[in-house]
Amino acid sequence: MYLIPSDSPFWVQSSKILRPTILLISLLVGVHFIKPPLNYAQQHSNSQAHATALSLARARSLLQAGKVEEALASLREIRLGTSSDSDVHLLTGICLAMMAQPIESSTELNEAIALRPKYAPTYMSAGLAFASLNNLEMALDHLSTALRLDPDLPNLRFNYALVLSRAGNYAESEKQLDIELGSKTRRTPVSLDFWRLKARDAYSQKKWQDALYSYTRVRELEPDSAEAYSAIGECLYSLNQPERSMAALQRSIVLEPDNETTHVLLGKIYQSQGRDEEAIAEFEIAMRLVPDDREVIFRLSRLYTKTGNMAAASNLQKQLKTSFAESNVQSINEQKATVLNNTGIELERKGYRLEALEHYDQAAKTDTTNLVFARNAALLLCKIGRTQEAIERLKEILAIDPDDAKTIQILTVANEIAAGNLSEKETLPESQR
């Protein structure tokens, strides 16, 4: 059994990535390791030890059936004083964690570890219990200890990777999954949960090619996964393959019609191709799903203006102004975005290009109305060799403002670089404040 993430797509709100959710039922991962010692009857013939063994077996069965309170009651009846005390404390701690009692759970888990300090399954189960309580620091500490004690413990490395991903350490999570994958033989099946986590880690790092590969594996194992199709569509879009991207996104919408982000991405592709009416249709759906998405409002107002629907454009512009006025964030967002952009320029000058790219992207998301920030991100992508991704972003900017001279200039150079004229990279302009 694995520590399984939520089945819901993890980019359902304004393109923000939601981290995988740890399910309480996953605490049962370690339960099957908790068992009386071999030859228990011969070693412990007294009635107390026999009663303890029966109570532990009953508690495990109740936990596996989801009857947490009954399992806890069974454990409370056990008289301590046998070699199974560690198991009693561990199961009690798991029950309390599943009942959202962190202090009491922590006490029991620590007691279990103290009684059996070099037993990896105890650390593993304790780590998952702490994870369910959202104490990720303690969870990772216990899971890493379990990994040092027994690197080959079944399911341990996967669960460690999942908690790392939950904590936002996608790169280390991906590293652990690669180790796990390398340990498998060709005939060993790789689970859907494994590929989904690997795909999410790559996606979270914007490693589009790796994410595309892993999400393709997800789709093979789960043909009707809206998440997989949506992510594949975004990966292909970022790799400047809009036609293939559209096919994947359209399939995702069939499977999950109410995913606002998929509609927005499809609308962007239509907009960049000059298919204004289709773009409008997608943005209108996205706006019905998330009425306050300022980027959608902004794009839709520009499209209405372009197609001559001035009344609708005026209404959206008023809505956008009202939204900013009510939340009083426009000037704050502009300031934040400017700081992010300027910091990105300084990082780029010092050679920290990936960090600079992250700042440009954040600036563009913070202030969606200022195309300078998005242009700086596309420009840097071109400089670091991610030319196809840069071209797609530049086309997206021109779909909003076809007369942007700097964007046209950069796109011309990017197309030359993509055609193999690498020396043209030297003619790229500096990022703009």
N-to-C span: 51 Å
Helix content percent band: 55-70%
Q: What is the alpha-carbon Rg in Å?
A: 27 Å
**Total of DSSP H or I helical runs spanning 4+ residues:** 22
Largest sheet: none
Mean pLDDT: 84
Considering the protein shown, what is the CATH homologous superfamily of the domain at 16-36 and 48-188?
Tetratricopeptide repeat domain
CATH architecture of the domain at 16-36 and 48-188: Alpha Horseshoe
The CATH C-level class name of the domain at 16-36 and 48-188: Mainly Alpha
Q: Low-confidence parts, pLDDT < 50 over ≥5 residues?
A: 1-38, 40-45
Structural class: mainly alpha
What does this protein look like?
By secondary structure, this protein is mainly α. Among the domains are: 16-36 and 48-188, Alpha Horseshoe (Serine Threonine Protein Phosphatase 5, Tetratricopeptide repeat), CATH 1.25.40; 325-419, Serine Threonine Protein Phosphatase 5, Tetratricopeptide repeat (Alpha Horseshoe). 69% of the residues lie in helices and 0% in strands. The protein is built from 22 helices and no strands. α4 runs parallel beside α6. The longest helix has 20 residues, at 330-349. It is elongated. It starts with 39 loop residues before the first helix and ends in a 15-residue tail after the last helix. The relative contact order is 0.06.
